[in-house]
Amino acid sequence: MLFGRNKKNPIKIADKGIVKWNYSTCGYCSTGCAIEIGVNEDGIPVGARGVAGADVNRGKLCLKGIFEHEIFESEGRGKTPLLRDNIHDEFKEVEWDEALSTMASEIKRIQQTYGRDAFAIVSTGQILTEGFYTLGKLARGVIGTNNYDGNTTLCMASAVSGYKRSFGSDGPPGCYEDFENTDCLIAWGSNLPEQHPIIYWRFKEAQEKRKFPLIVVDPRVTMLAQNADIHLPITPGTDVVLMNALMHVILAEGLQDQDYIDANTNGFEALKAEVENYDPMTAAKICGIDEDTIRNVARLYAKADSGMNIWTMGINQSTHGSDGVVGINNLSLITGNIGKPGGTSLSITGQCNAMGTREWSSCSGLPGYRLLENEQDRQEIADFWGVDPAFFPKKRGMAQTDIFPAIEAGKIKGLWLVGTNPMTSMPNTARIRKTLEKLECCVVQDSYVDVETTPYAHIHLPAAIWAEKEGVFTNTERRVNITRKVKEPYHNSKADLHIFNALAQQFEQGRKMNFPDQPSEVFEEMKTLSKGRLVDISGMSHDLIEENRGVQWPYTEQQLKKDDKPPQGGKRLYTETATFRFPDGRAKLIPLPFADNNERPDEQFPFWLNSGRLVEHFHTRTRTGKIGNNNKYSPTPFMEMNPDAAADLNIQHQSYVRAVSRRGDAVVMVMLTQRVPRNMVFIPFHFFDCVNRLTLGLLDPYSRQPAFKQAAVRIEPINQEEAARLNKANRQF
Amino acid sequence: MTKVRSDEQKYAFLRDEESLEQNRYGNKINLAENGDELIADALTINNQPSESENPNRYKQHGFYLNADNCIGCHACEAACSEKNDNPAHIAFRSVGFVEGGTYPDYQRINISMACNHCDDPVCLKGCPTRAYTKFAEYGAVLQDPDICFGCGYCTWVCPYNAPQLDPVKGQVSKCNMCVDRLEVGLKPSCVSACLGNALDFGVIENVPENREVAQTEIPGFPTAEITQPNIRFQQTKGAHKEMTRTDTMPVKYHRNAESNSFEPVVDEKAGRDKYWNLKSLLTSHESAHVIFTLFTQGTVGAFLMLFLGPFFAPEIFSLLENADLLLKLTVVIFVTSTIGLYKLNMHLGKPHRFYRGFNNLRLSPVSREIAGVSLFYTGLLGFLVTLLIPFDFIKAFSYAFGGLAALSGLAGLYYMYKLYRIPARPFWDHLQTGTAFFGTMLSFGALIIAAVCVVFVDSSVLDTAIMTQSLAAIMLIGLVIEALGHWKHADDMQKLGNEGAASYYRQVTQYGYSYLLRNGLLALNIGLALYFCVFSIASVFDWVLAILLMTSMLVMSVFGRSLFFVLVIPTTMPGAFFWKNEGFVDHARETGLADMPQVGVVHERHHAFKVDELLKTIKENSLSDMVDHVKWIFGYKKGH
Predict the structure, then answer these.
(1) Number of DSSP helices (H) and strands (E) in chain B, helices first
(2) Residue B371 confidence (pLDDT) above 90
(3) Distance (Å) from the C-alpha of residue B68 to the closest C-alpha of chain A?
(4) What backbone phi and psi angles, to 5 degrees, belong to A465?
(5) N or C: which end of chain A has fewer CB atoms below 10 A?
(6) Which domains does chain A have, with CATH numbers?
């Protein structure tokens, strides 16, 4: 209109014709954002937005959530069950009855031939809690294999293990509101802006309202590290040493909260004796953080009125993952920073329902944080399900990372993978490939038929995705939130709950037991089983959850009866003295001696190999790799490398190289940046046939979680045309 | 359309209570006073009248980026693309970064950038179709893809890479400021989506709550002088002395110790080795422009000589009075010109909308160029027709058409030169563009006439010597002008230090041998032209030299003009490693990664001339509509 123009051009703005918004909870990470999916007149999902009134995300979404409506119709979804006798044959399309009866007869055959535990189940952190609970019932009560685990072993097992060792139970004690109350935040191996952008925003909002120091422990200069008040660029795998040194300073200078320690913990003396060995000068030589900084950070943290520790895979995915979590708990306990506003030890969880599987799937125990090792727990569940308690094993079976070696050793002959993609996600791809080829029966139950594990499957069961189903997720801060069904499952795919129920009917024991069809009925069972437990959800219902945009547990039926409305947020665990989950209510302070068993860089393999997440991708890219507006920010794998190291090897920015480890090689495009030190390279973990061809994945002795982030590689040149061809060939999506 | 939700969060709402009278450029922030006809003219969005109670509706708004806080999470870009339903390869907002320092003292500054809804929107001024409007409402600069014919000129002139030319749809689209959200009091989608508390929006010059400054400088951001952009920054955390780009652009930024601002300098990323790089040089998307500009300059030059020569120097050009030769020459010029125009038109995203090229005669040098060249072509055609009619009275028409062609041809070339004087493209924004263009007009024009004469005229019957020698002299003048321009250009570009110097760096490295060849041939051509000033074509040796000159002229021109187009480096924002990285775009196209739509790179493509759409437009518009349209071009309001 200005510049003497004489006619307004019409304004056209894209109108997707959304007629209805469906309430849901995001199906990517464990932040637990409430999300609304907009559908048009034809019922097709065309838009997404954050729910403005939800306390978790307050209207915000990250780029994955913003485009989550595109995953319903994305490439590579499974349309109908597939079956074949041999993995070298072509699949044939079959109906569900045939697929499930074949599967059941294979399970029976394998169990009869090789024993009950010769059929293993590895599930996920992605499906709805009602599905997890039902899968647990099927696995523990009907199929009866003790080799049943979730892929949370790859991400959260160390947190679970550490919480159990320190507090007597799993269950993160803090909440997002702690950011608004804390006086000092330490982020251990956690890159919120990239991994959990909405949690980052909650932190940023809090920090802008009330400045508090942020300390970031990370060998890489992430955006969080760059924005930290103090960045500790630690030597990989030595976090425990740093923790011990911090405690050394705290105890040496009397900065601990002795009253809290005396009232709430056991084992203080032993801890004190152990940390004596880690004076800052000694520790500095191991962990690479100078002694003055160690003292400075210890004082800053211990003197803060409330101090908060958060961590993610930098801690969990290492050979000392469980110890790292215990170390963080130790730090929190000796400074009295558990269960108080702004004082917590909060594991920032990975998958959308990693918490749900920990609580309800029975994969490392029995529902509601019950233990197989506990006779009363076994009895309760056996009675409730109508199973002979003797049918339950008395000890937890193998973790995912032990199941695969057992297949390798010929002890396990059948494997059912539910919503997980070990060909991309597990360390040492070459070993996993050989392992999968050995199976007599491999069932892949996934929403996508193009997951890289499908080529090793005998049966593929196409599952409905997230909002083609109804049910709940639990997030990092123990908030149960609901996903409503937006549309019918894609083609002939089925909801996981439906698949589990239908498979149960293939077994005599399954037909005797009750497997409710409706997610809300399943939820009622879970409520009953949660009464009086730490994870008490008995006051909740699907409708109440939606009304409140998610409810944090515990929320009991007593609270509901008293009309004690669930708080918006801010619910914590262990707020009262000596209410930890050990019989005496006291948490354990556990000494952590350190021995370095990592594969470290040497002359042959001179670089640390670090791996991690990118904000635009989720896990093995089966979803985000197909959504252009996510994928385009990193459509092919790359490797961050220090320019000074590259200069020595005559490696150019944006050229391809071959990274080689003792396990194999990977072709990546080089991104030269001073974000990584001279002796380290970083490769995102999302890509098939990439970083996990290199990783060693030594297992944590407690959690059995692999150390993805500590291995050694060398960098070799590669013919650029050939590399480009390989790179393209490896990227079907 | 957008509705405010009952539980909408505070951050999503616009909140500007007070604002300044004037912005830092001295322009009024209030763009329309009460009673102004701009206010009377109602706003419609998607054909719906839009009414708003937004008290700041007529104030210039702008984005605010707190680069201290930007984490590069892409939420703004995603929210924008979701809202505007953009495919992966199009983005109205993009985040790039610059980085500096040595581990662990490493720093990355992310920069999120969309349209800056400038006070001086060069896109609007440049667009030949008048697809752009600067609205008094919010000062939004909006573009209508339904008017655009996909020439991409706005993408050349914008220093911030805001307009997006879609190779698939063949049209441009851009940030629309989310005016539908502003109308209901909400901030744009990108701002509401920001997870770093970095992006904000409001009446321009207002510093948001909790922020300290409103700068117009940040490393990587071009000077605000070009367009007076409505963007403000905060970047208070100390940056390193040198900030580099991760994309392939050979540019980095140095902090000027005195002004504390960052200035672009050359980053010799690709070393000092020389290459030919023939494939990307000769097969670029801009090769249509190479042909169009060369052919048009040559034919205008040739026609000027053909038409004016006999007037001003009859003793030299008397040969042209030969009707047969004149006809042959005119046909050659006409055919050459046709090819040039055809190439230009068919490179448009919507070639059947060619007639819209005149819409912006009042502001756009492109419109004027198109008008000039079209009139030249019309005059040329008329002139050719008169040659075919064997009546004496036609002579007057012949002069009229010839005069039209000569004048409009010159005017067309002038605006052709003007349109490349783009401040956001320092490599072009130099007198050399003029010396090259007008030099080509002389050298190529003379070459066309000389070649036709030499081929068609039997020199044993007619004496061609004086004319060919004179033409060689004109050619020599043209070539010398061009050479001087190149010399000065090379010198000036190196001194510039900015994207111009980066272009020069590429010229002498990535295209080093091609550049040397161009220079060598230019010298050779000057030598040969000099030879033919003195000697007429008499021997076999002369013929060999003549053919050599002809070939060498062609090769030199193609190389020279192609270099002109491929080397230009705009003052656009820094990209990321994959996204908005020219190097990765090329790689994805070469290796076939671009075959997958989710990679976010698409192949360049040609677009069909849709005759049916053109016929439909003709059918749907009455003669009076067309008259109204012409009036509109000249500033009359419909119905007034």
Answers:
(1) 20, 14
(2) yes
(3) 9
(4) -90, 170
(5) C
(6) 18-71 (2.20.25.90), 82-155+352-517 (3.40.50.740), 159-347 (3.40.228.10), 607-729 (2.40.40.20)
Instruction: Round the CA-based radius of gyration of chain B to a whole number and report it.
Output: 27
Residue A150 backbone dihedrals phi, psi, to 5 degrees: -110, 160
Q: What pLDDT score does B192 carry?
A: 98
A311 by DSSP, 3-state: which? strand
What ipTM did this prediction achieve? 0.96
Angle at A595 between CA A591 and CA A599, to 5 degrees: 140
A519 to chain B nearest CA, in Å? 29
* A489 DSSP 8-state letter: P
Residues from chain B contacting residue A674 (CB–CB below 8 Å): 99, 101-103, 106
Chain B neighbors of A728, CB-CB under 8 A: 591-593
- Condensed to tens digits (0 to 9), the pLDDT of residues B484-531 reads 999 999 999 999 888 999 999 999 999 999 999 999 999 999 999 999
Q: In what order do the strands lie in the sheet with B231-234?
A: B199-203, B61-66, B231-234
Q: Out of A296-310, B13-27, B234-248, B284-298, give the one with best mean pLDDT.
A: A296-310
Cβ count near B85 (within 10 Å):
13
Interface contact flag, B124 A673, Cβ < 8 Å: no
CB contacts under 8 A, B 15-34 vs A, are 31
- Alpha carbon of residue A384 to chain centroid: 29
- Cβ–Cβ contact B196 with A under 8 A: yes
Beta bridge partners of A657: A668, A717
- Would you call A654 and B81 a contact, using CB atoms and an 8 Å cutoff? no
Q: Is the pLDDT of residue B311 over 60?
A: yes
Closest CA to B158 of B424, B382, B338, B480: B424
Q: How far apart are CA A187 and CA A24, in angstroms?
A: 29
Q: End-to-end alpha-carbon separation of chain B, Å?
A: 33
- Residue A599 is predicted with a pLDDT of 96
Q: How far is B167 from B175, CA to CA, in rounded Å? A: 17
Domains and CATH numbers, chain B: 10-60+72-93+112-197 (3.30.70.20), 278-567 (1.20.1630.10), 610-640 (no CATH)
Closest partner residue to A1 (CB to CB) among B50, B84, B135 is B135
* Sheet architecture: strand order including A344-347: A230-232, A214-217, A184-188, A307-311, A344-347
Cα(B168)–Cα(B350) distance, integer angstroms: 11
- Cα-atom radius of gyration of chain A, to the nearest Å? 25
Phi then psi for residue A82, to 5 deg, are: -125, 150
Chain A hits for B79, CB-CB cut-off 8 Å, are 61, 66
Nearest by Cα to A71 from A436, A352, A394: A352
**Is the predicted pLDDT of residue A44 greater than 80, yes or no?**
yes
Please, what sign has the CA dihedral across residues B581, B583, B586, B590?
Answer: negative
pTM over 0.80: yes
Contacts of B1 in chain A (CB under 8 A): 13, 15
Amino acid at residue number A711: A
Q: Is residue B493 within 8 Å of residue B501, measured between CB atoms?
A: yes
With a CB cutoff of 8 Å and minimum separation 6, the contacts of A22 are: A36, A37, A38, A39, A467, A484, A485, A486
Which residues, 6 or more positions from A42, have their beta carbon under 8 angstroms from its beta carbon? none
Determine the distance in angstroms separating the CA of A53 from the nearest CA of chain B, rounded to an integer.
5
Confidence of residue B50 (pLDDT cuts 50, 70, 90): confident
B427/B510 Cα distance (integer angstroms): 16
CB atoms closer than 10 angstroms to residue B520? 12
Contact assignment for B133 to A674 by CB distance below 8 Å: no
What pLDDT is stored for residue A4 in this prediction?
A: 40
Which stretch of A258-262, A503-507, B214-218, B374-378 has the lowest confidence by average pLDDT?
B214-218
